[in-house]
Design goal:
heterodimer, A: mainly alpha, Fumarate Reductase Cytochrome B subunit, 11 helices, 75% helix, B: alpha/beta, Fumarate Reductase Iron-sulfur Protein, Chain B, domain 2, Rossmann fold, four-stranded parallel sheet, three-stranded parallel sheet
């Protein structure tokens, strides 16, 4: 690990296994912590079932209603932009697809490198805008915690280091690539213990929301 | 407050935590969008009213005691304790500046049902003794007298006599085997006695078999408002006992929003079993009668009318289209507020805020959102179907020097009934 190649091999070997293990065990624990709490039976006569409305809200809550969009266009638009950009960089960059294929056996077509590059730049800019908004808006100042800044940092770093590695802005290349892989691993390690859990739990939360309202005959 | 009451509060928080609450707390990304959905934040601009901050005491207990990560943080002294001082600070956020209208629950991008969490957090507030005096008074009067306003049957009897004289119809009382048992709200009896006259006329017109019960006429539930399951269950049980004694098949919740949430959606869970009868809001009953052709009306209101959907009825109760069908029946110039139905803005008075005297200023601040909504469509009159909303609309409109009368939908329907071939 004393030389760049050794560092790269470490990030691709033992560190990768450690990060994936912490992520998988941590996230499994978080989900277990949610579901063991259970739910009391509901004796009120329902207007509709829970599964359909719950699944509907899982999908529809991705789009803001027109009133919310009018009240907070920045939150809605920039939130969309960076989430989509992040997903493009993560899931449609061909070397990433190759990695996923080698680990999970799943694969899909990727985007051409310049397209992923552009998405990365847009995402980095959007994330900076998100940070400025968090630091400056009175509501964001009031509700933000250390967790928010930690989650922002570990999300931002893999994008920047990925950009640096792709454009060979740091030499030697194994060092740049190793830094990118390491920041992605830090993201995985931190994920189960911060608000980044919403990557998984938001779908559960949306389902419960849709089910609770749907049972009463309201599309939520 | 004593250590004992704090412990009771913490125990209540623990009892309230369930899988949905844990999923909601696990998912918040602190995006701040819920603030934009809250009339108390939007109209005051004070970030402390951001809805996700309101259930913070419950979240702290959940994180410290129900997550491994939170326990580790607690061991290292990195997490905050729920103390009496903290709960005292939160009292204003949970009671004065929240009507549990659920609008934030509709817009949260990760799907947090915030009003679900706030309702649960109030349980711990009651158990720990951090509740506004006005609400304590209402709850204690409700338990003692059956009415949060201390209204007794003899006062209602005066209204009944008046209705019988003015309509020439009889108001059935304690009629066993009737199909419907009608409930009322004290605020309605005091502020809007025309409601009782209206249902008397409508039910006679449609040939409905109904009754009031001298054992229990109050539909509202101060226990649900304050956040005490014990009190709430006691008040629901009185309705159940009265309905079972008379052997009715259906119970009608009056023009009141939270009563409908209490008796229709929370009630069976409060007493821990399903009802042997069905519960409807009066608007649902009227819509059923309309659909069955049992409401014969004549003439329509010609002025420009708009409507305020009570949050508990529409967004939290699923009664949204019914009132619009009924408006169609009696109005030819109806215009909806731009954001209505499940996205409608709260009037600012529900969830116990109207019983909490010290919240008066905040209540009027929140009403300014409703005012803006009303001004957008410039109606000549507003229609609603909740006595608390109606009182708030009337007070707010008066205070802000708007000239817009507010009417109840049920009485508007009654005014258009054809009686013996003649308009009523």
């Amino acid at each position: 690990m004393s030389d760049p190649m050794g560092f790269l091999l470490w990030t691709r070997g033992p560190m990768f296994v450690a990060a994936v293990s912490v992520f998988a065990l941590g996230m499994a624990l978080r989900l277990l912590e949610i579901f063991v709490l259970g739910r009391a039976p509901n004796y009120a006569e329902p207007r509709a079932g829970e599964w359909g409305p719950g699944l509907r809200t899982v999908l529809t809550r991705s789009l803001a209603d027109s009133g919310t969009f009018r009240h907070a266009p920045f939150n809605v638009l920039v939130g969309w932009i960076w989430h989509i950009g992040f997903l493009i960089a993560l899931l449609l960059f061909i070397p990433h697809i190759e990695l996923i294929k080698s680990v999970l056996g799943l694969h899909w077509p990727g985007l051409r490198n310049p397209a992923v590059d552009a998405a990365t730049v847009i995402t980095v800019v959007a994330l900076i805008a998100v940070l400025v908004h968090r630091l400056g808006h009175p509501v964001m100042q009031r509700i933000s915690t250390l967790d928010d800044y930690l989650a922002w940092t570990v999300t931002f770093l893999p994008l920047v280091t990925g950009y640096i590695a792709y454009h060979r802005l740091v030499n030697p290349y194994p060092l740049a690539l190793g830094m990118h892989i390491l920041t992605a691993e830090i993201f995985l390690i931190v994920l189960p213990f911060t608000k980044l859990t919403h990557i998984f739990t938001a779908f559960i939360a949306r389902w419960y929301n849709g089910a609770i309202f749907g049972r009463k005959g309201v599309e939520s | 407050m004593s250590q004992l009451s704090l412990e009771r509060g913490l125990a209540a928080f623990r009892q309230e935590l369930d899988a949905p609450a844990a999923a909601f707390f696990s998912s918040c990304v602190h995006c701040g969008l819920c603030a934009q959905a809250c009339p108390f934040y939007v109209e005051t601009g004070d970030p402390k009213y951001t809805p996700i901050l309101k259930p913070e005491p419950l979240r702290l207990v959940w994180e410290r005691e129900y997550t491994l990560w939170g326990r580790l943080k607690a061991l290292l002294g990195l997490s905050e304790h729920v103390t009496d001082e903290l709960l005292a600070r939160w009292e204003e956020l949970l009671y004065d500046s929240c009507t549990m209208c659920g609008r934030c629950s509709m817009v949260c991008p990760v799907g947090i049902d915030l009003q679900y969490l706030i309702r649960k957090t109030r349980e711990g507030m009651v158990a720990s003794g951090h509740v506004p005096e006005g609400l304590v008074g209402a709850a204690s009067r409700a338990v003692r007298t059956g009415s949060p306003m201390g209204l007794q049957w003899k006062t209602l009897q005066v209204q009944i006599t008046h209705v019988e004289k003015s309509t020439g119809l009889s108001v059935p009382i304690d009629r066993e085997g009737a199909d419907y048992m009608a409930l009322l709200s004290s605020m309605e009896v005091i502020n809007f006695p025309e409601y009782l006259g209206a249902i008397t006329k409508i039910f006679a017109h449609a040939g409905i078999s109904w009754t009031l019960s001298t054992d229990c006429f109050e539909a509202t539930n101060a226990g649900v408002q304050i956040g005490s399951k014990d009190i709430a269950a006691e008040l629901v049980q009185r309705v159940v006992d009265a309905a079972m004694k008379l052997g009715v098949k259906k119970v009608i919740s009056p023009e009141c929003g939270h009563a409908y949430t209490a008796i229709r959606w929370e009630g069976p869970n409060l007493i821990g079993r399903p009802y042997p009868f069905k519960v409807y809001h009066i608007i649902e009953v009227l819509e059923e009668l309309r659909g069955a052709g049992r409401l014969r009306t004549e003439g329509k209101e010609t002025d420009r009318l708009s409507m305020h959907d009570p949050c508990n009825l529409a967004r939290k109760g699923g009664v949204i289209q019914q009132q619009r069908n009924l408006m169609e029946l009696v109005s030819e110039n109806f215009v909806d507020l731009k954001e209505h139905g499940r996205y409608q803005w709260c009037c600012g008075a529900g969830g116990g805020v109207s019983s909490n005297e010290r919240a008066g200023e905040l209540r009027m601040a929140a009403f300014r959102r409703k005012k803006a909504q009303i001004e957008e469509v410039a109606p000549e009159r507003m229609v609603t179907m909740c006595a608390t909303c109606r009182t708030q609309l009337e007070e707010g409109i008066e205070e802000l020097n708007m000239d817009i009368p507010v009417v109840g939908l049920t009485e508007m329907i009654a005014d258009h009934l054809v009686e013996n071939g003649q308009p009523a």
